[in-house]
Amino acid sequence: MTQSQLFDAIRELLPFISREAVSAWEDFIADMNIGNPQGELRMCGELYAEILLIQQDYSDEVATALFNMGARHTVNTFELPGAAEMMEGGMDEEEIFREITGSGWHPSEEHTQRVKLIVRNLG
C-alpha cells in the first residue's frame, strides 16, 4: 500500500483526520524507511491495519484522535493499540506519549496476527 493509497483509505474510514497529522505520518513513514521502499509499503499497510482495528475495537473518535495525535506525537504503528487502550482509560495525549515511549509497549501475539492478516489481504 502506497502512502497515497493509505491516506485515501484512512480518509474513507475517518473523515475528520487532520492535514497536519497526514503530513506528520508521511514524514514519519519516510524517515523510518529511508532507502527502503518495501519497508515503506509494509509500514503503510500496518498503519492502515492498526487504525482499522482501533476503529473496530474502540470507536471512530478514538481512531481519529490517535491518528491526529501524530501531528504532535507520532508513535510506532505497533504501539497504537496500547495508546488506544490508554486513551479509552482516560489518559491524555501527553500521558499516552510518555507512557508508550517510556515502557516500549508491544501488542499481543493475537493482535499482531490480526494486523498481518489485514496487511496480507491488502496485497
Description:
With 123 residues, the chain is mostly helical. The chain has one domain (3-122). It has helices spanning 3-13, 19-32, 37-57, 60-69, 80-88, 93-103, 109-122. The chain is globular and about 35 Å long. The chain starts with a helix and ends with a helix.
In terms of per-residue confidence, which ranges show pLDDT below 50 for 5 or more consecutive residues?
Answer: none
Number of helices: 7
Write down the domain tally.
1
Fraction of helical residues: over 70%
Order of helices and strands: HHHHHHH
Question: How much β-strand is present in the residues?
Answer: under 5%
Question: Could you tell me the number of beta strands?
Answer: 0
Radius of gyration: 13 Å
Sheet bearing the most strands, described?
A: none
Principal-axis shape: globular
Indicate the topology.
Elements: H1 3-13, H2 19-32, H3 37-57, H4 60-69, H5 80-88, H6 93-103, H7 109-122
Short account of what is shown:
This protein has 123 residues and is mainly alpha-helical.
Summary keywords:
globular, 7 helices, about 120 residues, mainly alpha
